[in-house]
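Below is how a single chain appears once it has passed through the pipeline. First comes the sequence as given, then the structure the pipeline wrote out for it. We keep one example in the README because the format questions we get most often are answered faster by looking than by reading.
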Amino acid sequence: MSTHNNTEGFSTRAIHAGQEPDPTTGAVMTPVYLTSTYVQSAPGVNQGFEYSRTHNPTRTALQECVASLEGGAHGIAFASGLAATHGVFSLLSQGDRVVLGHDVYGGTYRLLAQVMSRQGLTFEVVDTTDFEAVRAAFETKTQMVWFETPTNPLLHVSDIKAVCELARGAGVLSVVDNTFATPYLQTPLALGADIVVHSMTKYLGGHSDVVGGMCVTNDAQLDERLRFLQNAVGAVPGPLDCFLVLRGLKTLAVRMERHCDNAEAIAAWLGGHDKVRFVAYPGRSDHPGHEAAATQMRRFGGMISFDVDADLETATRLASSTKLFALAESLGGVESLLDHPASMTHGSVPREERLKSGFTDGLLRLSVGLEDIEDLVADLKAAFKTAFP
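Resulting structure:
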């Protein structure tokens, strides 16, 4: 158990929480415990570990560290962000109803629409920036609200405290996907959320070399139920995956500062381009959620979406013309990535559902990396010249 607490600074906890020097050798770095089982001194008598699906020391260190960064008491790690998402939805029972934020990761929508719905869950897509719409949705025997802020890919910002207060008053479980913001930029548990979820594949790992998911809560009963599902279903990360995320967490604060610096500069450049219809970035004063973001976020993140004033063919040509911005799914790594959501990350979301929220075929999403800003801007300038000769 870590001796570090939430009164220490963010970077101190990122480097030390859950990661005491190895008591056997004094190793500074958490060992990678590549073992499936553990010796017992007598039947049922062990040192806290009996089988690595249930517990693994490397995973324990990671769970404690992420929980500390989120200001939570309990962290429960899964093999991927979607495995963590499935774990949370599995808290519900047949006939239960979910209010789903209207702009979420396509995989979350797919899981509810094509998997959990077959197991008896129902859901309604609601704009969680509209408090009256949320309140009305909660009146229809809702058990859970799941939302992102900023959202993927339109970067809408919901007032976490307000939505969670509505949920608590209605007896609804509130879940916030904090993948885009990371605990460095915002901590939803402190604003009233019951559960925070991460795809650790993204900013927490930070180097595009690992897949993982995490749930964090302050509720002991939710922790017990999620830990049961973690063990019973078995979608757990391997120890090397846990080690890689732990390594990434050590530089999360400094990485996020550079991500934010670069994203702010690129959002400003895109905002002045005559072929860009709109720029979605919470740090811009013209963003509808700017005030809420400024209240609940430390800075505004490394994700930008923008809509080009062009047809699908031109938007696709632009997406295929960058060199430093790699055309690839995922986000949050040190390298810059460009995504065409309609045909890539959000292809499973019905087009009519996308268009209702302003998500057009011309929308492009940037995960702004840590490269030199002059080189990133030059790359986008060249791509625009190619797409709009």
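The first strand starts at residue 74 and ends at 78.

See the next section for the split statistics.
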